[in-house]
Every structure is written in structure tokens, then in C-alpha cells.
Write a structure and sequence with these properties.
three-stranded parallel sheet, about 80% helix, Chaperone_Skp, Protein Binding, DinI Protein, Chain A, mainly alpha
Length: about 180
């Protein structure tokens, strides 16, 4: 009887250990899912439009700064062969121009910094709900399939967290189907 109990206990222990080692692993490719989502494409379009708007404004300000600088350079060159008094008068005339130029450069730098922050914020606001929707769909498919671990091949490839990969269960199409794609 002791021998039977010991064998039953060992069998139960081995079965439990085997179940722990047989955890299901699958993968998805979030890039494929994202690229199939109209909401993501729309978000990308909005971000590109906003980035282009900022780029146009930066170029406009840079052009304005360049025009002021070029005019000041021409004014300086125009008095090269003039008397010291004329040179001094030109330098006096250019002091407010120099201050204006510095102010415009500072304004441009501030605009660029704010534009970068605004774009990052906008990207977060537009894409966070999309990423959450994908994560929830992946989790739902994983639960339905009783999958213990799901790797994202898109991010694993970028950060090097997936060292070896050969085949396996690809849940990408099922996640797309759940998302209505």
C-alpha cells in the first residue's frame, strides 16, 4: 500500500511538473496588425500633416532669419571701404538688427522644442487607444487558446529579446480577425 501511495504521489508530481513545462507559447507580429488597422493609418496621416505644418513654419522662420542676416552682411560690406565714422554709424544701426536676429533665433528654437513636444503628445493621444485595443485583442486570443506566453516578433526583433525563433503558433491572423481586419 505504501508503495502504491508513493507511486501515485510520484505520478501526480511528474504529471504536474510536465504540465508546467508544457506551457503554450505563441507569437504575433504587431507591425502586421498595426498596418492593417485603418485607425492607425489615419493616425499616421494626421501626424504627418501636423509634422509638415511645423516643418513649413520652421522653414518660414529660418528663411526670415536668413534674409535679415544676408541684409546685415550686405550693409556691413557696403561700408568696408568707408571712413571709420561711417563704419561706426553702420554698427550702431545694426545693433537693433542683431538683437532682433538673436530674438528670432531664440523664438525659432523655442518653437522647434514645443513642436517636438506637441507631436510626441499628439502621437501618444492618437496611438495609445490603438495599442491598447491590440493588446486587449492579443490577451483575449491568448486566453481563448490557453496560451501562457505570446511574443511580439516586431518588438522582440528590435530590442533583441528573442534570440532564437523557429516556427511556432502565429496568432497574428486570429488577432486581426478579432479586431475585424
Amino acid at each position: 500500500m505504501k508503495k502504491f501511495t508513493l507511486i501515485a504521489f510520484l505520478s501526480f508530481f511528474m504529471f504536474s511538473f510536465a504540465n508546467l513545462n508544457a506551457q503554450a507559447v505563441a507569437h504575433v507580429n504587431s507591425n502586421d496588425i498595426l498596418n492593417a488597422m485603418p485607425a492607425f493609418k489615419e493616425a499616421q496621416t494626421k501626424l504627418e500633416a501636423e509634422a509638415n505644418r511645423h516643418k513649413t513654419e520652421v522653414e518660414r522662420q529660418q528663411k526670415e532669419i536668413q534674409e535679415i542676416y544676408t541684409k546685415a552682411q550686405k550693409d556691413i560690406e557696403s561700408v568696408q571701404n568707408k571712413s571709420d565714422a561711417e563704419k561706426q554709424a553702420m554698427m550702431q544701426k545694426l545693433q537693433p538688427v542683431e538683437q532682433n536676429l538673436q530674438q528670432k533665433q531664440q523664438t525659432l528654437a523655442q518653437y522647434q522644442q514645443k513642436a517636438t513636444q506637441d507631436l510626441a503628445k499628439m502621437e501618444g493621444e492618437l496611438t495609445e487607444p490603438i495599442y491598447t485595443k491590440i493588446e486587449n485583442a492579443i490577451a483575449e486570443v491568448g486566453k481563448k487558446k490557453n496560451i501562457s506566453y505570446i511574443f511580439d516578433l516586431a518588438t522582440a526583433a528590435k530590442n533583441g529579446s528573442l534570440v532564437y525563433f523557429q516556427g511556432g503558433t502565429d496568432l497574428t491572423s486570429e488577432v486581426k480577425k478579432l479586431l475585424g481586419l
